[in-house]
Amino acid sequence: MNKPGIFIVGNEEKPQVKDALRQILEGISDRAEIVGTAVGVRPDDLSSLNADYVIVLGGDGTILSVARAAGQRAIPIIGVNLGKLGFLAEFSVPELIEQFDRVVSDPELVGERMMLEANRGGQTVLAVNDIAMIAGPPFRMIQMECYINGECLAHLSGDGLILSTPTGSTAYNMSVGGPILLPRVRAIVVSPIAPHSLSLTPIVVDCDSTIEVKMKRVNQGSTLLIDGQLSSKLNQDDVIRVRRYEKVFKLIHNPRYSHWHTLVTKLRWGQGPSYNSAGAP
């Protein structure tokens, strides 16, 4: 059996990354072909990468950056959490070393997650979590028109709009009251941010929908934000066209935990009130 080709990427801002890299190299080198390592990475470093898997040492933000950079390759990503939340980065260093053989041999652990692409003025950018149009300073309401497959859905006045993948449904979308979707669902969440209307609630549309957002009034600091990491200025009459990206983002799931377990332990979803055991107020 051929050894899997592994490329390891570390977040240079994490002080523990070098120690984690050393431990993983010691733990898997006899079971894998290490095709390269990098502490800090540029998109060009991954666009032509010849590897079977990418191990990402960092946090969820590092995984988002790597997934966008390797978007066309759809190389499965194994996330090792060195950050705060670790919602996408499901493995600890010891867990990855212990379960490495299964991780690289069990196809049921490979989750395929949809991505989005946003086109503005002929330029396209990929998003793993979300695409957001945000009011920005001087923080007056902005106005937008949202179209689904060419049909006008709504005229929006408020602080902005989030278009989210199922993966991103637990990120910015959740914080504005949008629904949580399981990663395997194929849909796009449309969530207004602080809309000036009681009727404008988040909706879920088919993943094959094409969404157009026309900026009718913006502020000087209004921003197009991709995955909370890439930002660019929004201008009056900009049109942002969003649709599902043709490739998927592949993320290896830790077999020790279910997605519901992650929701409960990481985000405290579904937790009941903390009752006094004696029944006293």
What is the CATH architecture assignment of the largest domain? Sandwich
Assign a percent range to the helix content: 10-25%
Cα-atom radius of gyration: 20 Å
Q: Please describe the biggest sheet, giving its number of strands, its sense, and whether it closes into a barrel.
A: 6 strands, antiparallel
| Number of strand segments | 16
> What is the C-level CATH assignment of the largest domain?
Mainly Beta
CATH superfamily label of the largest domain: Probable inorganic polyphosphate/atp-NAD kinase, domain 2
N-to-C terminal Cα separation, in Å? 63 Å
Classify the fold: give the CATH topology of the largest domain. Tumour Suppressor Smad4
Oligomer: single chain
- Morphology: globular
Query: What percentage of amino acids are in beta strands?
Result: 35-45%
Strand order of the largest sheet: 6-5-16-13-8-9
Order of helices and strands: EHEHEHEHEEEEEEHEEEEEEH
Secondary-structure content class: alpha+beta
State mean pLDDT (0 to 100 scale): 92
H/I helix tally = 6
Which stretches are poorly predicted, pLDDT < 50 over at least 5 residues?
none
Task: Supply the number of structural domains.
Answer: 2
Structure description:
The chain is an alpha+beta fold and 281 residues long. It has 2 domains: 5-106 and 255-267, Rossmann fold (3-Layer(aba) Sandwich); 116-246, Tumour Suppressor Smad4 (Sandwich). Helices cover 18% and strands 37% of the residues. It is built from 6 helices and 16 strands. The chain has helices at residues 17-28, 43-47, 60-69, 93-103, 172-175, 259-267; strands at 5-10, 33-39, 53-58, 77-81, 110-120, 123-127, 130-134, 142-148, 151-158, 160-164, 187-193, 203-206, 211-217, 223-226, 230-233, 239-252. It has a 6-stranded antiparallel β-sheet, with helices on one face. A 6-stranded antiparallel β-sheet has the order 12-11-10-7-14-15, with no helix packed on it. A 4-stranded parallel β-sheet has the order 2-1-3-4, with helices on both faces. α1 links the parallel β1 and β2 (33-39). α1 runs parallel beside α4 (93-103). The longest helix is centred in the first third of the chain and has 12 residues, at 17-28. The chain is globular, with a radius of gyration of 20 Å.
